[in-house]
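Fig. S4 source data, part A: sequence.
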Amino acid sequence: MSDKMFTKVMYWLRPGVGIKRWCVLLGLGVLLLAIAIAMVILRYYYPVLNDSNIYLRGDFIWTRAVLLLLGGIIVIVYAFMKVSKEIIEPFAPTGRSVASVVAERRRKSRGPRIVVIGGGTGMSTMLRGLKEYTSNITAIVTMADDGGSSGKLRRDLGVLPPGDLRNCIVALADDEALLTQLFKYRFGDGDSIKGHSFGNLFITAMSEVTGSFERALAVSGQVLAIGGRVLPSTLEDVKLIADIRQQVGNTVHRVVGESAIPQEIGVIERVHLEPENVPAHPHALSAILSAELIVLGPGSLYTSVIPNLLVVDIASAIENSRGLKVYVSNLATQMGETDRFSLSMHTEVINQYVDESFRLILSNNRYVGKLLPKMAWVKVDTDISLGWDIVARDLVDETSPWRHDPDKLARALVELLDERSTNAVL
């Protein structure tokens, strides 16, 4: 045995760890089990010993063997449960048993491989529902955000915007955990870091400590024990630029910055990144190509969803993927981006950037509750182009009807994947 291995063994055997007694009991159970098996073997294969050994004579040999066997199994199971509790229980969420956590993680590990592409609150809402079905989730998030806390950190420290990434990490975590609430915490008046969230500052600091933004995201995910991965669509510093026409016949003017685009009055004709042709995150590409389900949206059409498709490699991977591709339509229009947009207008804009890959559309068909001012329901219009496959379900969150209900949306997507996969096999 090497010195390193010996040191590890002695560490576990030191006083106070609390597992030595259960290891001894486990050894005792194994010994009882071995004696029972040995008695049966000697009884059958060495009959000459039966008459000379009092433990192997008589009709009660089977009773003794069975009792030893059961006793050994009971002792082993009990000792193993105690050892597992001492080692694993400190890492289990508060109020949940180790067995339930292991069973749930095992179930989710067998779930479908799902890639979600977008940004903003719509994406995190969907992730919150999907994590109940699978842990094989990859969230690919836009890096064009330049507003709020993310924008300040981006301008002051030159880091990639962490806001949408942080929201997705929190969404994939256990909502009851204290660390999750901590990551959401936003500093208020009187703080020198007013407006910043703790999660954004943590990711920024971790990127400095680890020397890598990718590593910072991975560590943040480990801290919250998330069920999946959160990846930026690109690691390059990009700006979102929009060409906007104020009125019909007017010249097009250019607006720079994701946060500035919705503030302009007019119609967005096209958006693009600066610089163009930036490389995609390699793990994002491999996730898309191996996905069973690729979900685009929901979220702000021009500032959260499309910026991911402007990364050429992302769009190309989507076009070449054999997974089921679904565009989740927004429930309501968004002022400054999709005023008076119908469902067909949303889908036509999306497919301008991704070679008409998203022909399957998941839309809401329940219009209840009061929307915010200047919002309107996105409904399936009668003049929608032929070739679109529209699936309409009740997706509305009745407390905030302009938002999706995470459970309804996740259930609809998983059912859709099951139905289409079955039909493909048949």
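Fig. S4 source data, part B ends here. Residues 107-143+233-425 form a domain with the Rossmann fold fold (CATH 3.40.50.10680).
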